[in-house]
């Protein structure tokens, strides 16, 4: 676990570590994360999942999405309508048109009704033992999780990206982190976060 309170430096180190993964190693890790997430979803009541379309280097869970739809789990993708605002979620399925949103992130172009997912996936550049998320620094997930009702927040990360940094006032712990090595904290199987 890397320990550094300089979040920009931690972010740079973790992004470099992700880029150093070979395509084969990354594909294997992504498949293990997808398997862990699939098992987690089997044990929890999630009808609508706030998923994500991966930025370069992020775990790519898109091969799992058609399987989740077949199991009756709806998918919603986050959209940034305005900087410094919470995310909104819109229904999505593979094949729907995507484009960059106000933050430059891939997002659905269709903007039908906004949905309230039961759980949202939050890709992490890094994460702490206290389930704090190190992201790109825009604060979108923290603002989203500060709203009520709050969905279950599921961090998605590579196990090697566990880091340590001091919490800031706006940091909101995720409910669980799912990595290529398992869940943190270990999943008890009940329907609590």
Uncertain segments are none
The number of strands is 14
N-to-C series of helices and strands: EHHEHEEEEEEEEHEEEE
So how many helices? 4
Q: Going across the major beta sheet, what is the strand order?
A: 7-4-3-2-8-11-13-14
Coarse morphology: globular
* Mean pLDDT level: 90
Work out the radius of gyration: 16 Å
Helix content, binned percent: 10-25%
Largest sheet at a glance?
8 strands, mixed
Structural class: alpha/beta
- Proportion in β-strands: 15-25%
Q: How far apart are the termini?
A: 24 Å
Could you describe the 3D structure shown?
With 193 residues, the chain is α/β, with parallel strands linked by helices. Helix content is 24%, strand content 24%. The chain has helices spanning 7-19, 23-43, 65-70, 140-145, and strands at 2-3, 48-50, 74-79, 88-91, 98-100, 106-108, 114-115, 119-123, 126-127, 133-134, 152-156, 163-164, 176-179, 182-184. The strands form four sheets. An eight-stranded mixed beta sheet has the order 7-4-3-2-8-11-13-14. It has a two-stranded parallel sheet with strand order 1-12. Strands 5-6 form a two-stranded antiparallel ribbon. β13 (176-179) and β14 (182-184) form a beta hairpin. The longest helix has 21 residues, at 23-43. The chain is globular. It starts with a strand and ends in a 9-residue tail after the last strand. 33% of the residues are buried.
Essential attributes:
193 residues; alpha/beta; 8-stranded mixed beta sheet; two-stranded parallel ribbon; 24% strand
């Amino acid at each position: 676990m890397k320990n550094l309170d300089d979040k920009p430096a931690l972010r740079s180190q973790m992004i470099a570590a992700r880029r150093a993964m070979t395509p084969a190693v990354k594909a294997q890790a992504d498949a293990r994360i997808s398997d862990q997430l699939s098992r987690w979803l089997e044990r929890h009541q999630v009808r609508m999942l706030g998923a994500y379309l991966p930025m370069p280097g992020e775990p790519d869970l898109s091969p799992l999405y058609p399987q989740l739809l077949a199991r009756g789990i709806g998918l919603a993708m986050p959209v940034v309508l305005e900087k410094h605002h919470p995310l909104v979620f819109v229904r999505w399925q593979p094949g729907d048109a995507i484009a960059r949103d106000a933050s430059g992130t891939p997002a659905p172009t269709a903007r039908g009704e906004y949905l309230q997912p039961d759980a949202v996936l939050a890709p992490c550049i890094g994460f702490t033992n206290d389930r704090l998320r190190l992201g790109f620094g825009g604060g979108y997930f923290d603002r989203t999780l500060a709203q009520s009702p709050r969905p279950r927040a599921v961090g998605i990360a590579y196990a090697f990206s566990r880091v340590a940094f001091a919490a800031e006032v706006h940091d909101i712990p995720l409910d669980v982190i799912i990595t290529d090595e398992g869940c943190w904290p270990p999943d008890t199987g009940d329907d609590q976060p």
